[in-house]
Amino acid sequence: MHLRSLPLLGSAALALLCGAAAPARATDDTLDLRRFLARFRTGEIDASVIGRLIPSEEPPPAFPAYERARQKLRTEPRIAGAEVLLEAAVLVLDEDPARELERFATRQPWVIRRRAIDELCEYYLQDELQDWAATKLAEGKATAAERRVLVEWLGAALAKRARPEIYELAKRALEDASAPVRGAAANALAPALHERDLLTVVRLLYDAEAAVRLRAATALRVALQRKEEAPDPALRGRVLQLAAGRLSDPDAHVRVALAEMLREQKNGLVLPFLVEALAAEERREKTPEARKRFRAAIEDLLHELTGRGSPPLRAAEWRKFLESADGERSVRPEGLPGRTSSTGAIPRSYATYFGREVRSDHVVFVLDFSGSMRRRAGNEEHDRGEGPREEARRIDLAVREFLGYLEKLDEASWFNVVVFAQGSAACFDDLEAATAENRARARAFVTQLPLGGSTDLFSGIVRGMRCAGLEDGSRAGTSADTLFLLSDGIPTAGAVTDPADIARLITTLNRECDLAVNVVDLGARHSAFQKHLKSLAWQNGGEYIRP
């Protein structure tokens, strides 16, 4: 058992193990837990403390519940040890009476729960543990919280090896009474989904819960990206038409996920649905429900399928086109035959950020304010003969680009800006409309905050993702659909510092909200670290930008 790998479980999982022994009244354990949390929040103790569980080293003082958990992990057999970790993950989903464990600053418990499951799958993923989890799920006695954790665990197993019995259990969970379990099942099946089961997942697009519908949309996107040896074009066409019929979903995140999935597939059978979706989006203009990212995906796909629509056409003009002979011929899988117009994104007059069009009006920026941002941009490369000398500091470039973007916003746009160093802070609690007052507040926020401290990249990204409506593992409200991360260096502080783990965990968490994560890299050339930054962007529908 790779017990040296336990640090990834983090302090939250450890605290929850201890919290299991702490009722709401003020017992000694409760007081010890509060002291531990205070030390955690101030940085005196970080996630690596759990690494001291085994081998035995001096535990935190006056923390008897911690000691009991350590002893149990040392003495119990491996299956029981795995069960202890599962209990920690499940407890994260339960409401603590004192609400002490609901949030660890920006390190939310559901983040650590997901990390706990990832850790189990990464290091303990063996058939005996899969069988144990499958048996526990099949017994039908687990609570909804336990079922969700078990399904997520089995999903990680399917991503590595698609055992038929595990696949069937996950498929059965699509009909679970609990919405979080249904969503977890859709996510679990995505990397191994059989073509014959695509329509089963399509049914979840009609679920009453928006979070489940989003999971279904992202699962279909992943499944359809996978190359089948002998795909069924008729079945896929039917799946795409049914998905296109849900472009009217009341949740903006679901609409965006479906539109971008359809754009990837480029099937002309969905053209009539695209036109109606565009008409509906035109009616949402100047309202909080309007989404630039959704509209851009629809307009680009119409252009790519027909060779028309650059500059973009209104829905009424597209309706006339569909009534024409060319329009009738375009409603086929390959689109309009013989089209000569170049495909790709339509040029627009959007606000830009480091030379890239920001194809969204619900954006959160996450900016590095660590001490290294005082350095001159690009001078390490210049000293090696690899680039020009730049006189501006990295922070000056970051602030200048953000303020340039800010000045081009109208009041129909929504935004927020998060900065991180030793910890993280946001200008607003959530997205705010780009009024003159809010733009002035954001301008003061980024120009008056001091630089300094280490680089807690993970907490900065997670704080930004909260602007996507993520709260304790669920989504709510009108929220961000695009994130721009700007950093110049390797993480040196926080709950997670390994760049590979950050990329993997953020990608997993992002399945809950479908954010497009773009990365701006202002640091010196560091091929190993840049590989993970590129992975973070490319696996989350964004772009890696190196100015």
Strand and helix layout:
Blueprint: H1 10-19, H2 28-41, H3 64-75, H4 78-92, H5 109-124, H6 127-138, H7 144-160, H8 164-172, H9 179-189, H10 198-202, H11 210-225, H12 233-244, H13 252-265, H14 271-283, H15 292-306, H16 315-323, H17 325-330, E1 352-353, E2 356-357, E3 362-368, H18 379-383, H19 394-407, E4 414-420, E5 424-426, E6 432-433, H20 436-448, H21 457-466, E7 482-487, H22 499-509, E8 516-521, H23 527-538, E9 544-545
Parallel strand pairs: 3-4, 3-7, 7-8, 8-9
Antiparallel strand pairs: 1-2, 4-5, 4-6
Helix pairs in contact: 1-2, 1-3, 1-4, 1-5, 3-4, 4-5, 4-7, 5-7, 6-7, 7-8, 7-9, 8-9, 9-11, 11-13, 13-15, 14-15, 14-16, 19-20, 22-23
Question: What keywords describe this structure?
Answer:
547 residues; alpha/beta; seven-stranded mixed beta sheet; two-stranded antiparallel sheet; 23 helices; 50% helix; globular
Polypeptide structure, described:
The longest helix has 17 residues, at 144-160. The chain is 50% helix and 7% strand. The strands form two sheets. Strands 3, 4, 5, 6, 7, 8 and 9 form a seven-stranded mixed sheet that branches. It is α/β, with parallel strands linked by helices and 547 residues long. α4 runs antiparallel to α5 (109-124).
Beta-strand content bin: 5-15%
> Main β-sheet: number of strands, strand sense, barrel status?
7 strands, mixed
Query: Taking all residues together, what is the mean pLDDT?
Result: 75
The quaternary structure here is single chain
Indicate the radius of gyration in whole angstroms.
25 Å
Number of helices: 23
Q: Ends: how far apart?
A: 44 Å
Secondary-structure-derived class: alpha/beta
